[in-house]
Design brief:
Number of helices: 6
Number of strands: 0
Order of helices and strands: HHHHHH
Mean pLDDT: 81
Shape: elongated
Strand content: under 5%
Distance between the termini: 77 Å
Largest sheet: none
Structural class: mainly alpha
Helix content: 40-55%
């Protein structure tokens, strides 16, 4: 026996279909595409070529850099990338900022940006995937890169 379709049941079905559609949309989005978009947006004021970002993404994928994010975290990063500029407040915005900062920090440490004293006018070159265990002596924040007079006079 079929029950009548009430307004409440209709709205529940529409909500369920919408949620399922949104979930399938985010699962279909490529994680690498979202990460590349984050890097491009956050380094838009720097001179970065796409081939540098692609090389970083390839090395990070081969090294298993993104394996530290589980399925939910990857879904959250994709969601945050595509919906951070909407009028609706984004829940857990600080957590997304933390993930985004991790991604961009690893990209910049994989280039010569810090070795060039953070000069935004210079074109970035890709050095290799940043791993402190493989390159333990490269500390771009040490005083070996800056002299005391530059730091005091604010020319860093």
């Amino acid at each position: 026996m079929l029950s009548k379709l009430t307004r409440r049941k209709f709205l529940l079905m529409i909500t369920l279909v919408t949620v399922l559609f949104a979930a399938s949309f985010f699962m279909a989005i490529n994680f690498d595409k979202a990460v590349k978009g984050i890097i491009k947006k956050d380094t838009s004021k720097l001179s970065v070529e796409d081939k540098i970002i692609d090389q970083f993404m390839q090395d990070a994928r081969n090294d298993g850099k993104w394996d530290q994010f589980n399925f939910e975290q990857k879904l959250f990063i994709k969601f945050g990338y595509y919906f951070k500029n909407t009028m609706i407040p984004f829940p857990y915005k600080n957590k997304f900022t933390q993930y985004r900062s991790f991604i961009v920090r690893n990209f910049l440490l994989s280039t010569d940006f810090f070795l060039n004293k953070m000069d935004s006018k210079k074109k970035l070159r890709y050095i290799g995937l940043h791993n402190p265990y493989r390159r333990p002596c490269s500390n771009p924040f040490s005083n070996g890169y800056y002299n005391a007079n530059e730091i005091v006079n604010g020319r860093v």
